[in-house]
């Protein structure tokens, strides 16, 4: 039996090469230079050291340390890793181009520095040039390669010098250039001729070449899938060219929905949730801890923290965002109590993952700490993978991702220790970027038999195919040359011929043109919206240049053709059009008819509940009766909300015990001290380096507001009775529950209620118009206990403004602003009357209204106390601003 020689199909462009369709690939090797080198080493029995590129960079950085007072010294000092990585790439190119690493005065200065680094240094990890030299040495020693034929897609003179020496020892023959597969005389054939260097002739588009523009990516995917449905017989000879792997996966999902065989498109990304454990774990080492990173860590789909504990701690962060806040400590105490964690295992795990050594952001971190954190991640990921592998139905993709995460953590730990005893934050970021450079492959669907074929480039088409659908006509920019023109000239004078990118680019474009020539029947080019922001793909640009001006600049728009009901101009890429009525989204719905037996009055009341009840009964029903809740996805409070909450907390820490008021300066000093102490714990987002101006402004605002508050209360003869003072009284014949921001009292037992608001211009107007219903409700509840209505006021913290009504003002000096307005008792009376007169929806008819959506004439009497009548078109009612049900009532459209 005669053994067939090995067939090597090799091109200069890196990467694998797809085998021909339906043809056996036994004893055949296809791909780029790295594929050929691996085959040579296997045949000659040459061992190679498998090492991550990071190991090469680390080793080369050590070699570069001997280069002093040179052109690269400052770069090495500023960014050791990036400089070593760039110089390693240059060195490898030089070696492949014939550089002997000897010092020569005629070479560029940077090359002379690289020669100094190489002098006397023994590299453990071989370069590609070293590996090629080992192949040549083996052949010189008499070793013989098996019978083979190496079919080169690019002429040998385009390859680097070191490769040319190896190729000269092989049985080489040029690749057979394919004939133009398109039918002669048709536009596809003309396009194939142009990209192969033929004369440029005007192309009149026909059924063999179609060009269409889509206004959305979704429409493009649906269009492609719909055209494939109409041509199922040729699916296995249809090629989808799509550079964007995410887009290809979306198309696979659409094919599956149509019941068509899928392409098995995959997407490799470092954004896989499992791979986020390592970077998020390391961010917890920097102080102050970024609460967003901590929240991201706790809410990972697969997290080292047990789910129950992670949810509880994440919820604490949403209330007071900071590691060590009051809410955090309370949650931690509950989780690790004797009842819930009798053996202390949870506490031990939380300590190891969350309470590590912390380092200031402007300082350095010890390499040992980084190594320990990496070891923790590696141990967790590998152990979790082994446990999952023992399951009855193991999730192979997830197990693989866990092993990748373990490998990345182990690699980063080694890299960190190899850089010295300490690392700055930028240095650690560089190493982390290198360790995470390889992602995890995600496969949405299998590669089904008889399905279309997905390729990322025309160059991957190596055999005749029926049709090609080119999805996305833009492409990324080619990589710029690392060398200047002067440096290239100096290198050339020393017989070191560096490819400035021309040979590599020519190889790629030649392969792409060759792939296009394999198309037999038709080519469909689909222009996506994102393509207009990219560079035209050179192959398409060459074809497009031959179009008429109309066809070139005004291709048919898919959505317009569908709207017109005529897609015949895209033949043979046609599809069925079916019109269906679209159900309109929820419109404005001011009245909801709800069975009266489903509505029940509450057993207790609060200030917010009463205000919602009058302003928008629908919101009240959704919240208190239906108990509809917003998404449980944890998120930090926005800046405005966080500022208000934190200021409340600081004032509560300082004045919450109800002691006698000290001097103004002493009170301000105490507030500033507590502000500085609690900020990293209770409002950590403002403790981050990029929030310096925000926290300084907030500190000044709170100091000024404290001065105004204390001055006013002291001059009025008050002492603070309590902050967040719990109120348990009665209103509407029901128990009333609430808490007052600040309750003050004079020696004559006269009380004052001060409501803290962070910012806003409306509070003065509320007092003047008699709309301070929240203050009125608290005042009424206190009057039931003391026998008289207290004075009331708003303190706007951001502006240091103290508003109090003339009808029952808080006593004090000029720091307060007395606003002409009714007494708070009169406000309560009007509020009480309005609620009592607008309760028919709850007691009689069940017609529950969304009052902000109704016209003014439909509002019951008295409701204007909680609703505005002269709003701008861009504003909404106060009751709507923080409402979770705007999509239900129709105020906010879904589409």
Task: Write out key terms for the chains shown.
single chain; 895 residues; alpha/beta; Rossmann fold; 6 domains; six-stranded mixed β-sheet; five-stranded parallel β-sheet; globular
- What's the rounded overall pLDDT mean? 91
Q: How much of the polypeptide forms β-strand, as a percent range?
A: 5-15%
Residue stretches low in confidence (pLDDT < 50, at least 5 long) are none
> CATH homologous superfamily of the largest domain, by name?
P-loop containing nucleotide triphosphate hydrolases
Number of domains: 6
Radius of gyration: 37 Å
Work out the helix count.
Answer: 34
Distance between the termini: 70 Å
Text of the CATH class of the largest domain: Alpha Beta
Spatial order of strands in the largest sheet: 19-20-21-22-23-24
Largest sheet geometry: 6 strands, mixed
Percent in helix: 40-55%
List the helices and strands and how they pair.
Blueprint: E1 6-10, E2 28-31, H1 33-44, H2 53-64, H3 73-78, H4 80-96, H5 109-118, H6 128-140, E3 148-152, H7 161-167, E4 172-174, H8 187-195, E5 209-213, H9 217-229, E6 238-241, H10 245-257, E7 266-269, H11 277-283, E8 286-287, H12 291-298, H13 307-319, H14 326-335, H15 345-354, E9 359-360, E10 364-366, H16 367-389, H17 396-418, E11 422-424, H18 425-435, E12 440-443, E13 453-455, E14 465-471, E15 474-475, H19 485-493, H20 502-516, E16 519-527, E17 535-536, H21 538-544, H22 549-553, H23 558-564, E18 591-593, H24 607-615, H25 617-625, H26 639-655, H27 664-682, H28 692-715, E19 718-731, E20 734-746, E21 751-757, H29 763-768, H30 773-786, E22 791-796, E23 801-805, E24 816-819, H31 824-837, H32 840-843, E25 847-849, H33 878-881, H34 886-889
Parallel strand pairs: 1-2, 1-3, 3-4, 5-16, 6-13, 6-14, 8-9, 14-16, 21-22, 23-24
Antiparallel strand pairs: 7-12, 10-11, 15-17, 18-25, 19-20, 20-21, 22-23
Helix pairs in contact: 1-6, 2-4, 6-7, 9-10, 11-12, 11-16, 12-13, 13-14, 16-17, 17-18, 24-25, 26-27, 27-28, 30-31
């Amino acid at each position: 039996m005669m053994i067939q020689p090995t067939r090597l199909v090799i091109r200069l462009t890196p990467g694998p090469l797809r085998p021909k369709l339906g043809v056996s690939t036994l004893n055949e090797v296809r791909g780029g230079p790295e594929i050929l080198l691996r085959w040579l080493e296997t045949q000659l029995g040459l061992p190679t050291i498998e090492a991550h590129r990071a190991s090469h960079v680390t080793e080369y950085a050590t070699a570069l340390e001997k280069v002093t007072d040179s052109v690269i010294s400052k770069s090495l000092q500023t960014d050791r890793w990036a400089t070593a990585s760039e110089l390693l790439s240059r060195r490898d190119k030089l070696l492949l181009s014939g550089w002997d690493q000897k010092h020569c005065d005629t070479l560029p200065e940077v090359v002379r520095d690289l020669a100094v680094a190489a002098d006397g240094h023994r590299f453990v990890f071989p370069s590609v040039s070293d590996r090629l030299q080992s192949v040549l040495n083996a052949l010189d020693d008499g070793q013989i390669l098996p019978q083979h034929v190496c079919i080169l897609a690019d002429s040998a003179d385009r390859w680097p010098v070191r490769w040319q020496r190896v190729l000269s020892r092989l049985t080489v023959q040029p690749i057979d250039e394919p004939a133009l597969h398109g039918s002669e005389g048709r536009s596809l054939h003309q396009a194939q001729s142009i990209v192969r260097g033929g004369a440029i002739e005007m192309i009149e588009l026909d059924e063999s070449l179609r060009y269409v523009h889509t206004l959305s990516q979704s429409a493009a995917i649906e269009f492609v899938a719909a055209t494939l449905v109409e041509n199922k017989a040729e699916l296995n000879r249809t090629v989808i060219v799509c550079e964007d792997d995410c887009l290809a996966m979306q198309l696979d999902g659409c094919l599956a929905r149509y019941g068509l065989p899928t392409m098995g498109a995959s997407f490799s990304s470092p954004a896989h949730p499992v791979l986020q454990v390592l970077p998020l774990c390391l961010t917890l080492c920097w102080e102050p801890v970024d609460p967003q990173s901590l929240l991201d860590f706790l809410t990972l789909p697969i997290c080292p923290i047990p789910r129950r504990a992670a949810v509880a701690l994440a919820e604490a962060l949403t209330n007071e965002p900071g590691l060590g806040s009051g809410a955090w400590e309370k949650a931690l105490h509950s989780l690790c109590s004797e009842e819930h964690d009798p053996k202390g295992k949870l506490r031990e795990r939380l300590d190891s993952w969350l309470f590590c050594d912390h380092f200031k952001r402007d300082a350095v971190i010890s390499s040992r700490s980084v190594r320990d954190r990496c070891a923790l991640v590696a141990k967790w990921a590998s152990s979790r993978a082994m446990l999952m592998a023992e399951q009855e139905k193991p999730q192979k993709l997830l197990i693989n991702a866990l092993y990748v995460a373990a490998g990345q953590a182990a690699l980063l730990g080694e890299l960190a220790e190899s850089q010295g005893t300490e690392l700055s934050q930028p240095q650690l970021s560089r190493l982390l970027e290198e360790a995470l450079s390889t992602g995890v492959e995600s496969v949405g669907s299998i590669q089904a038999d008889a399905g279309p074929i997905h390729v990322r480039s025309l160059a991957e088409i190596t055999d005749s195919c029926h049709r090609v659908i080119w999805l996305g006509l833009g492409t990324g920019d080619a990589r710029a040359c690392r060398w200047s023109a002067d440096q290239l000239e100096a290198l050339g004078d020393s017989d070191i011929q560096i490819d400035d990118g021309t040979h590599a680019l020519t190889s790629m474009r030649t392969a792409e043109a060759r792939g296009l020539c394999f198309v037999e029947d038709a080519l469909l080019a689909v222009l996506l919206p994102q393509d207009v922001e990219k560079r035209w793909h050179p192959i398409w640009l060459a074809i497009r240049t031959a179009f008429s001006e109309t066809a070139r600049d005004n291709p048919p728009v898919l959505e317009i053709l569908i709207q017109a009901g005529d897609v015949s101009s895209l033949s043979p890429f046609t599809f069925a059009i079916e019109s269906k009525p679209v159900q309109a989204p929820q419109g404005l719905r001011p009245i909801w008819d709800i069975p009266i037996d489903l509505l029940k009055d509450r057993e207790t009341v609060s200030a917010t509940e009463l205000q919602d009840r009058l302003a928008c009964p629908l919101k009240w029903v959704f919240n208190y009766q239906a108990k509809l809740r917003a998404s449980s996805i944890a998120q930090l409070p926005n800046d405005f909300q966080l500022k208000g909450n934190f200021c409340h907390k600081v004032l509560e820490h300082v004045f919450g015990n109800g002691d006698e008021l000290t001097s103004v300066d002493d009170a301000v000093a105490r507030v500033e001290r507590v502000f500085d102490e609690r900020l990293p714990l209770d409002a950590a987002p403002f403790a981050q380096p990029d929030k310096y101006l925000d926290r300084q402004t907030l500190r000044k605002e709170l100091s000024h507001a404290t001065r105004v508050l204390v001055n006013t209360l002291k001059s009025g003869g008050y002492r603070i009775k309590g902050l967040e003072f719990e109120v348990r009284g009665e209103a509407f014949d029901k128990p009333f529950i609430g808490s007052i921001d600040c309750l003050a009292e004079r020696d004559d037992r006269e009380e004052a209620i001060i409501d803290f608001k962070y910012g806003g211009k409306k509070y003065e107007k509320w007092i003047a118009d008699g709309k301070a219903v929240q203050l009125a409700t608290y005042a009424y509840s206190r009057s039931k206990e003391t026998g008289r209505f207290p004075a009331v006021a708003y303190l706007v913290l951001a502006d240091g403004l103290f508003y109090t009504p003339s009808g029952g003002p808080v006593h004090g000096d000029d720091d307060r602003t007395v606003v002409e307005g009714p007494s708070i008792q009169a406000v309560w009376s009007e509020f009480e009357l309005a609620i009592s007169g607008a309760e028919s929806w709850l007691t009689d008819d069940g017609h529950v209204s969304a009052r902000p959506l109704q016209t003014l004439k439909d509002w019951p009497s008295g409701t204007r106390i909680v609703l505005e009548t002269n709003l701008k078109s861009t504003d909404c009612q106060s009751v709507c601003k923080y409402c979770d049900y705007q999509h239900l009532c129709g105020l906010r459209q879904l589409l």
